[in-house]
Amino acid sequence: MSSIYLPRTADALAFAMSTYGIPLLVLATTGSAALTGAAFALEWIPRLAAFGWAGSIVDRRGASVVFHLASLGRTLALATGAVLLYLYPSGAMASVTVMVLAAATGVLTEFSYIATETAGAAAGRRAGSRAHRVQAVLLGIDQTATLAGPALAGVLLLTGPPSMLAVVTVLSLLAALLALRTPPSPVAPARAPKGRPGAGLVTGWRTIRALPALGWLVAGLTLSNLSIGLLQAAGPVIVVQHFGQSTTAVGLVWSAAAAATLVAVTICRFALDRLGLWPVGVACSAIASLACLAAALAPDYLSYVVMVAVLMAADGGLAVVLRTLRSHLIPPEAFGSTLSATILILLLPFPVAGVLTALSPPDALGHVITACAALQTLGLFCAFARLRTDPALCA
Prior knowledge:
The chain is mainly alpha-helical. It has helices spanning about 5-30, 35-60, 65-85, 90-125, 130-155, 160-180, 200-210, 210-240, 245-275, 275-295, 300-330, 335-345, 350-360, 365-385, 390-395.
């Protein structure tokens, strides 16, 4: 609790509040929708670029050290931003402050995330046959933070940008202090060559190729993420234009999805105890595929909310399967690099989904989602058919 779960909770809340709160902060400070979108991009583009660095540094320095330093760096950045916004609540200085803050927190949050995931995987390995329970708790913490973080950031923003940043600063500082209690993870030999910045991703990619079970599961989930990304990108168009709901109703879709995922993760803990990885993975794959097809054909807003919630709940079960499998299969000395490569592959469909949304007429989005759902079904079926007799999942 004190060495894994509490640090993860503090970091996840800071992660969620900064990820969703800073774009709101930009809008409140600048009043510009264009800058708000740019700030969101500034959060995510450096994160994707930092994957190779983050994984290799975690492998070399250890999860606890990187977690502590990244959280401490985020604390200093947020505290500086809070002071500057208190002194300059508007104008050019405020605009520059929030944009720089978006980029800085994006990079530092990526380092802390990779470090906490590595620490969680080490805890799963120590748990042995109960590793899935550890991964289910960690995923539950992430989903709870996703559910509570954006709402908390929005409420705090009503009291002023410095107040919101002050709370996120306290959470980041708490994460940095709790990181000192995180058990050290295995590190690469000091004599190993440092290599180029992208060497961590190359190492991770080679590790994935050397582990067929992990590779097939990542491939299937990547195709599944294309459908999920499309629902996220096209959600405002579908909810507002197709169903005639307000913009607030868009947020309700994902709040319901986060709540359903929490329930699903709890159920998966007990299901994995009794059934094992493969049966639970197959069941979640079937549910996710059917729910995505149903969401594309939903006749009204309520059924759409229910289907998206069911889809995300099933995806949460698949995430527990993936986390458990990679904690068992990936060598500890290469875990950070492989984790970085895995997450980068899983995130690549999201910008593709944005392009599909931009290029598709609103009336055709349902057909595009249906096509992606069919691709999702095919990808997950091939992955778990290949994994049916794989020794890793059978074990």
